[in-house]
Amino acid sequence: MAETGTDILKAKVLLEAGELVAIPTETVYGLAGNALNTAAVAKIFAVKNRPQFDPLIVHVYDIQQVNNYVTDIPEKARLLAENFWPGPLTLLLKKQSIIPDLVTAGLDTVGIRCPKHALTQELLRSISFPLAAPSANPFGYVSPTRPEHVDGQLGNKIQYILDGGSCEVGIESTIVGFEDGNPIVYRMGGLSIEAIEAVIGKVRLQSHSASNPKSPGQLKSHYAPRKKVIIGRIEDLLQQYPAHCAGLLTFQKDFNSPYQFILSPSGTLEEAAQNLFTGLHAFDKMPIEVILTEMVPDNGLGRAINDRLRRAAASENP
Ligand code: TXA
Ligand code: MG
Description:
- This protein is an alpha/beta fold.
- The protein folds into 2 domains: about 170 residues, Alpha-Beta Complex (DHBP synthase), CATH 3.90.870.10; about 90 residues, Rossmann fold.
- It has 11 helices and 15 strands.
- The strands form 2 sheets. The chain has an 11-stranded mixed sheet with strand order 1-8-2-3-7-4-6-5-9-10-11, with helices on both faces. Strands 12-15-13-14 form a 4-stranded parallel sheet, with helices on both faces.
- Helix 8 links the parallel strand 10 and strand 11.
- It binds threonylcarbamoyladenylate and magnesium ion.
- The site of magnesium ion has 4 residues, from loops.
- The site of threonylcarbamoyladenylate has 27 residues, from strand 5 and strand 6.
């Protein structure tokens, strides 16, 4: 068990000593270390059991800071940052050499994000370096949206979890990169494509790929819970899988089963995103063998939710 609390000074002291701290953001909890300290960054990979070809996102507290770490900010990137930071958006920008190659897995771009969470904002302002932070889960597993998720997965490997409660957005940031100034979305996430396009016009989507070198974390079988996930019409799936050993992850429908998790009783995609990973974590503790689930409406945050569900179902882990 890791110590959990709201002591920003304690988090600061640990980070300054090159240790790791789990931090809350509006999307998911991050496993943070000094992004400019290669030894601290190496610890992040070790604790997560993450292959070093999968780059990390660097967290800053405002747009001004970005100039210290990147060589160029394309016009559309600047517009996005101005409109959506702090918020669930990561920009891939050409890096300066001060960012260690280990952070970016040797790529010449660095993923940068300004998170929207009061505790983490205060922490970032109190230290003199940016924080490298992947989601605080073992590699390939479901991201944590509550301090107890972090503790359950990595509690024996880290000293401190900064407790910021439940994550408001609940799904990882949307990742946008640029080719000749033109935007490409590499990961759908907590900022909808519609919101992005309203500011910078049409964007290209390049995710769902099993071997996308630009965003290695897009491996098809990411975000996998410990139980097999099957997507379909739940009523039909229940003909094949007996209800007493099936967990039901529904958008809004109530099957009156003891092993169900309703993503959004009120039927909103924002609420469903907020609850998605809590639902997947909850099934780990239930005496079930499979998780039966259905796609949610494929617009707004629904696209990112469906992306995570597909990846969870593609897993070969269980
Ligand atoms: O919401 C989030 O983004 C959370 C919170 C903690 O900020 N972080 C997060 O980090 O989801 P992580 O490491 O679990 O996922 C980051 C993804 C990975 O798939 C990685 O491959 C991709 O971002 N990435 C990071 N830097 C990149 C780069 N320079 N080029 C391409 N992909 C990059
Ligand atoms: Mg992750």
